[in-house]
Amino acid sequence: MLSRGPPGPLENPLALFQYSQEQSFLGAVDLQCFKTCMREGNALPPEMRLHINLFPSTLIETPLPQLLALFPPDYAPHRYCIEINEQQFIGDPSLLLGSVDALKSAGIRVGMDDVGFGKSSLESLVVLEPDIVKIDRKCIDGIAQDAGLFRQLKRLVGVAHGLGAELIAEGVDSREDVDVLRALDIPYAQGFLWGQPF
Questions:
Q1: Own/partner pairs, 26-33, CB within 8 angstroms, 24+ separation
Q2: Residue 161: how many CB atoms within 10 A of its CB?
Q3: pLDDT digits (tens, 9 = 90+) for 140-184
Q4: Residues 6+ apart with CB under 8 A from 36
Q5: How far apart are CA 95 and CA 100, in angstroms?
Q6: What span, in angstroms and rounded, lies between the C-alpha atoms of 41 and 60?
Q7: Beta bridge mates, 134
Q8: CA distance 33 to 54
Q9: In 3D, which of 97, 112, 47 has the Cα closest to residue 75?
């Protein structure tokens, strides 16, 4: 599920969330986007898995009973995945561990979004043990022509496989990159190669 702001300068989600953070109401906007995505997603076929992003700060600040109350009472296990956005650096990923464990216990998958090659990404993966790892486009784009990028991604894939995480490559724009991703045993991908988000 993708969030979009109102038509105008805040329609782009990066601009919307940056403005919300500058005005100190990022958590409120993030939760409202979450509620809207839940409402719209419930109209989709029940066999579809719904991925909804939350900022780490929102996950930390929102009492877990309040967050879990936003899910339908009869949801199927693993229908929902909360993707924690890796772009917001929180310093200590163990601050999220209680929430992550509780979500998993409730049958909700936990994903790490925009995972890269940095120290913070590695620490978050090892501490939080996400069900799903979405690899940031900067680690994917042009990999068919970049041997260094290939080696780095191969190491990241090894870590994710060691944790038993499902892998999704983001930002895939070329068939050549798809061939490399298949060779690395990355089973899922998203990107402009298949269509524009809406």
A1: 26/55, 26/57, 26/58, 27/55, 27/57, 27/58, 27/61, 27/62, 30/54, 30/55, 30/58, 31/58, 31/62, 33/3
A2: 15
A3: 999 999 999 999 999 999 999 999 999 999 999 999 999 999 999
A4: 3
A5: 10
A6: 24
A7: 168
A8: 9
A9: 47
Closest among 1, 7, 61 to 197, alpha carbons compared? 1
47: which DSSP letter? T
Q: Which amino acid is at 189?
A: A
**Paired tokens of 37:** 């995505």
Beta bridge partners of 188: 168
The pLDDT of residue 54 is above 70 = yes
Question: Where are the strands (E) in the chain, listed by range?
Answer: 50-54, 80-85, 109-115, 132-135, 166-169, 188-189
The residue with tokens 């509620």 is: 35
Residue type (1 letter), 148? G
pTM score of the predicted model: 0.90
Q: At 189, is the secondary structure helix, strand, or coil?
A: strand
C-alpha angle 65-49-10 in degrees, rounded to nearest 5: 75
